[in-house]
Amino acid sequence: MDITFAILLIITAFGTCLYWFDFFKSGHVIVIKEEWHLKFEKAFPIADGWMAICALTSAWGLLSGASYGSVFALISAGSLIFLAIIDITFNVQNGLYRKISASAKMKAAVIINSWALLLGIALILNYGIWA
Q: FRET label pair with 29: which of 7, 23, 45, 111, CA 20 to 30 Å apart?
């Protein structure tokens, strides 16, 4: 199972980097190009960077059998869940989910948030005190 989670964490870290590269380079991933939304989005790169570093550290540890792999899996889990909850709360408060039927970008945001929540929960269930 460690290999599976390591692969998922690597995908998550690189996917996050690709998202931010696109955000700042071409902006294809931006759901709404209004200042209030851009300010919110621009608050995420450092926190996402932290999560990506933790995810890669965990993946390396899990693949090499080092004990820090499971520790960083849990740190990654907390980061993923927190980031998803903040994003979901913002989207609910600002009615962004109403755009889902007409916006591929908003559909992608739902997939990203679902991925983060589900992976975070799976990591906790696999590496937490109940494991």
A: 7
